[in-house]
DNA sequence: CGTCATTTGTAATATTTTTACAAAATAGGC
DNA sequence: GCCTATTTTGTAAAAATATTACAAATGACG
């Protein structure tokens, strides 16, 4: 059970940011900096179909959205635990679905306000 | 007073993301896409000292953090309302300070978990 | 050792960003 | 309207970053 004073609830102030987070599509250099995973490695994971970038659009360089950045971080963690790449990707599947649902919901919700 | 069942509180699931949000430092192209403000315009605002990028570090290109992206969006909104650039920057000062406090607090908090 | 998965290296090419100039467009005072 | 300061936009050349397509190195495991 969590109890929060309404006036002091910081989440409300921040809800709107999920819309911004949803729009944050960033290049591979930034993703490498943010996640600590080498660019070359990210490209390899993408070749294997585990990560997906948005190349089709206006840009001809790779762009990653929030959920793919998140995925890169999660996979990195599982690799450090000893999983293979494929196993890590499989293990993450369920969790990514949940994240996707919660995230999309929050982002849309915050957009309306 | 607000009381939330722990299992149903979506904010808790997402709290950790503020640490990620804090690390999201992105290039000018992405910022232009995200905010809808032209690159050239962002550079001008930076020349005037209203926006700040992180150039001193490892990168020699402009990188913007979350709060500066936020600032760009807010200023854009005020300009559309008819404020001058300087007036918009002044008006936003107080709000940015609050955002900075809440944001830093949340990000640090989420990092500890 | 052999094999497959994974990571890393790199040269040539393409894309993006920066800088430093300058010129438009816009707004407000007189 | 004209003047002036602010703000936006354009652009060419140089610098920085990213892509592709090769290949080699490393690691895990039977």
- Biggest interface found: A-B, 34 and 34 residues
Number of domains of chain A: 1
CATH topology of chain A: Multidrug-efflux Transporter Regulator, Chain: A, Domain 2
CATH hierarchy, class of chain A? Mainly Alpha
Quaternary class: homodimer
Radius of gyration of chain A equals 16 Å
Overall pLDDT of chain A, averaged? Answer: 85
Number of helices of chain A: 6
Helix and strand element order of chain A: EHHEHHEHH
Basic shape of chain A: globular
Tell me the structural class of chain A.
mainly alpha
Ranges of chain A where pLDDT stays below 50 over 5 or more residues in a row are 1-8
Instruction: Characterize the main sheet of chain A.
Output: 2 strands, antiparallel
Mind explaining what this structure looks like?
Two copies of one chain form a homodimer. With 113 residues, chain A is mostly helical. The first copy, chain A, has one domain: Multidrug-efflux Transporter Regulator, Chain: A, Domain 2 (Orthogonal Bundle), CATH 1.10.1660.10. Chain A is built from six helices and three strands, in the order βααβααβαα. Chain A has a two-stranded antiparallel sheet. Chain A binds chain B through residues 1-6, 9-11, 13-14, 17-18, 20-21, 23-27, 29-30, 33-34, 58-59, 63, 69-70, 73, 102-103, 105-106, and chain B through 1-6, 9-14, 17-18, 20-21, 23-27, 29-30, 33-34, 59, 63, 69-70, 73, 102-103, 105-106. β1 of chain A pairs antiparallel with β1 (2-4) of chain B.
């Amino acid at each position: 059970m969590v109890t929060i004073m309404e006036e002091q609830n910081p989440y409300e102030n921040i809800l709107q940011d999920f819309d911004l987070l949803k729009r944050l599509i960033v290049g591979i250099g930034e993703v490498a900096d943010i996640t600590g995973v080498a660019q070359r490695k990210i490209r390899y994971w993408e070749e294997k179909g585990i990560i997906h970038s948005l190349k089709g659009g206006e840009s001809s360089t790779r762009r990653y959205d929030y959920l793919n950045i998140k995925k890169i971080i999660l996979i990195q963690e599982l690799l450090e635990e000893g999983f293979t790449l494929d196993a890590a990707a499989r293990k993450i599947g369920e969790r990514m679905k949940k994240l996707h649902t919660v995230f999309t919901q929050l982002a849309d919700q915050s957009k309306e306000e």
